Amino acid sequence: MHRTQRPRLRGPAATLAAVALLGGVLTTGPAAQAAPRAEGRLTDLVNPFIGTQNEGNTYPGAAVPFSMVQLSPDTGHAVGYDYTDNQIRGFSSTHISGVGCGLGGDLPVLPTTGDITETDNTKYASGFSHDDEKASPGYYQVGLTSYGGINAELTATERTGVQRYTFPATDKANVLINAGQSLHRTVSTTVEVLDSRTVRTAVTGRGFCQDTKPYTLYTVTRFDRPFADSGTWKDGAVTDAQQSTGAAGNGAWVRFDTTKDRTVEATTAISYVDAAGAAGNLRAEGGRSFDRVARAAQAAWEDRLDDVRAQGGTETQRRTFYSSLYRSFLGPNTGQDVDGRYTGWDQKIHRAKGYRYYQNWSLWDTYRTQAQLLSLLAPREARDMAISVLKIDEQSGWLPKWGYGTVETNIMTGDPVTPYLTNAYQQGLLKGYEEQAYRTLKKNADGVPPAESPAVGREANKEYLAEGFAPYIKGRPHAKPGDSDYDHGGSATLEYALSDAMLGEMAADLGHDDDARRYRERAQNYHRIFDSSTGFFRSRDEKGAFAGPADPAKSEGFHEGTSWQYQWLVPQDLPGLVGLIGGTDATNERLDSFFAYEQLLADPAKTVREVWVNGPYDYYNADKYNPQNEPDLIAPYTYLSTGQPWKTTDVVHGALTLFTDTPTGMTGNDDVGTMSAWDVLSSIGIFPVQPGTDTWGLSTPVFDRVDLTLDRRYYPRGSFTVRAPGTSDTDRYIQSARLDGADQSRTYLTTEDIRSARSLSFEVGSEPSAWGTAPADAPPALR
After folding, report:
1. Where are the domains of the chain?
2. How far apart are CA 277 and CA 288, in angstroms?
3. At 490, which helix (H) or strand (E)?
4. Superfamily name and number for 343-559
5. pLDDT tens-digit map of 221-233
6. Dist. CA 726–CA 311, nearest whole Å
7. Does residue 20 register a pLDDT over 90?
8. Which CATH code is given to the segment(s) 12-305?
9. In 10 A of CB 239, how many CB atoms?
10. How many other β-carbons are positioned within 10 Å of the β-carbon of residue 325?
11. Residues in Cβ contact with 650 at an 8 Å cutoff, skipping those fewer than 6 apart
């Protein structure tokens, strides 16, 4: 029976008041596993080690939902932690889940013993074993095997990371606070020992895949007892000076006598505003014991995960599902201090009023899955995230593409911010901001950022607006750091056209009819790069000639993919795409080839792992589905528009097997929850097939029943249930569907359907059926 609606704990309330929800002690589990299962506790199903091997690039450390702090071990991998490493360089305060380049890792802290003779964390790193390592939501523990053996435990609040170190009995128990080394380029640092219990730092860093403008992180670390001794180092020279400033290479050391009391606790607060902000965050969220903070963090996660109750499926499916749900809530991240202040992209201090300011925008990734999942399960936060993106334009003059902290990185291509914000609009999250959002998106869609702006925006927009395509100009010099749309003219054209379609829908809704017509015409620009002689999309050069090899598996100008993989990125007009390919039969034949469909049916495990997947970064020279990267996330759902919806289930269920509850159980980079959100939505059986709208495609769930608790301010009924009794590997085909008891032949729902209905029920069987096969059952093309 469905549980009753209850008050939701969110933000600081979840972190600070959640202790009341959990009276028990913190529980942990075996290496690379979540805590042992206790009946009904969903956090026990979560394994934070999933994705820490084979370039999933996740982190196993402590965080709470959407928190500013992610306190986690760094082992030497470019993005922080890798399960195959055997040394830990430090526990640093900032990480981004699943990114492909070094980012974060600021202020690695490591406990040691003895004399301090080395300040390079690659040299003073400690050994560790997975046999003495545990993690669960909001908690991490590891036994360090160097320095006589030290037990390290981590937990977190929104803006603080709390450490507990249990040393051997010694009068030289040290904590090294390294301000000069992180996962990217550290530009300058300041370190100060303020008093006998407190260390303050300022770390200025830059870089993410390529160089960027700098940002500054301010930290203050408060210990639970006075130091026996302390000092700093600069450029490798250890001194007893209490302050050190310079172009990186700085750190502080503090020492304790642990001959009697072997435990040391420390709380590190951070701020992207100033030192006063870090101090304020420490006052508001510090001062609590490690155990109390850990219980509150676990309770905050339990409260969040409890919005989704899955029944049925295997234990592995449940563990994988809830681990993916957990990762989906790790970002974007709170960017404001407890007093509401934040550093805007104009590098000035602002104060959020009426919303919470968030940062870290992996938009090329998240606009396809995670944005929609958050709009469903965390609409209040998703609203504030969308407003935060609008504030970036307000304060810097342009919308972001890939933003980290207080700066633009310009990583990835196309126009991802448009479907991100139109999704927020279509989900009802921008009430009161509709016209502001539209004006901002119109400026972005019709122009190019000025030279003095750090943003590149739609870099190839001048040519796109004039000729209908973004030209592929190989080797064109970059005027700004980051990726260039000119290097990826084919995919940029498809991404621009998709965004134009979504903006056209918003324009029509708001009564901007002339704009709507113009954007809808531009949404058809995918035709401009279709080569009828090959039957595939091809990049065009600046003179309009097709560029690169004619073989679609060896195409050029498609970002992290080939023409085979990008050919399905026309969600705004799949009937038009089907017509270009040669009709429904030709399209289904091509889809079958793309997914190696007959091989998939004959040997799913081999096909999924040997035909589809060829390494986490193997994007090119392929004519098959790549379930590890964003361009193909929607592709399995194309069958919904070609009269063969059962094949969507076959492909989706095959791809779902790539998600497991082991360190290698992430398919490709998680990209701030993008792949995790794909897993969650596809497992439930609803997926955003037209990103930037309110359309959800349907496939067979992997669970008998999933109960969603929804925010009544956005979903008045407060819940939605998806049922598929008896669903399994063999009984996976939809025979019929009913929405609140009424026949549902369509292969899609709208957000309004989810708002107004209570349940979606599937009857499943062992053979495909005629369900959803009529042309009228397919998700409609945009107008």
Report:
1. 12-305, 343-559
2. 19
3. helix 489-509
4. alpha-1,2-mannosidase (1.20.1050.60)
5. 999 999 999 999 9
6. 11
7. no
8. 2.70.98.10
9. 11
10. 26
11. 597, 600, 601, 732
In order of 285, 401, 471, the CA distances from 457 in angstroms are: 38, 7, 15
What pLDDT, on a 0 to 100 scale, did the predictor assign at position 17?
Answer: 39
**Rg of the chain (C-alpha set):** 26
> What is the enclosing helix (H) or strand (E) of 751?
helix 751-756
Q: Which residue has the tokens 């030209």?
A: 471
Query: Distance of CA 734 to CAs 611, 760, 770, Å?
Result: 26, 12, 9
Report the amino acid identity of residue 346. Answer: D
In this structure, what token pair is assigned to residue 700?
């067979």
Structure tokens at 694: 């309110």
Nearest Cα residue to 77 out of 663, 624, 481: 663
With b for 16 or more beta-carbon neighbours within 10 A and e for fewer, the 6-34 pattern comes to eebbbbbebbbebbeebeeebbbeeebbb
Question: Is the CA virtual torsion 776, 779, 781, 783 positive or negative?
Answer: positive
Say if residues 708 and 683 touch (Cβ distance below 8 Å). Answer: no
CA distances from 645 to 526, 610, 733, 772 (A): 25, 24, 9, 6
**Mean residue pLDDT across the chain:** 94
Q: Which of 363, 372, 368, 373 is nearest to 413 (CA)?
A: 363
Residue-wise DSSP of 270-316? EESS-HHHHHHHHHHH-SS-HHHHHHHHHHHHHHHHTTEEEESS-HH
572's tokens: 């705004």
The span from the CA of 56 to the CA of 30, in Å, is: 21
Task: Look at phi and psi of residue 523 and say left if phi exceeds 0, alpha if psi is from -120 to 50, else beta.
Answer: alpha
Helix ranges, 163-289 (H): 275-285
Q: Report the distance separating Cα 139 and Cα 126, nearest Å.
A: 20
Q: Model pTM?
A: 0.95
Q: Residue 558: which pLDDT band, with cuts at 50, 70 and 90?
A: very high
Interval 456-491: pLDDT, tens: 999 999 999 999 999 999 989 988 999 999 999 999
Residues 437-456: tens digit of each pLDDT: 999 999 999 999 999 999 99
Half-sphere exposure (Cβ direction) of 566: Cα atoms closer than 13 Å? 33
Residue 12 has pLDDT above 50, yes or no: no
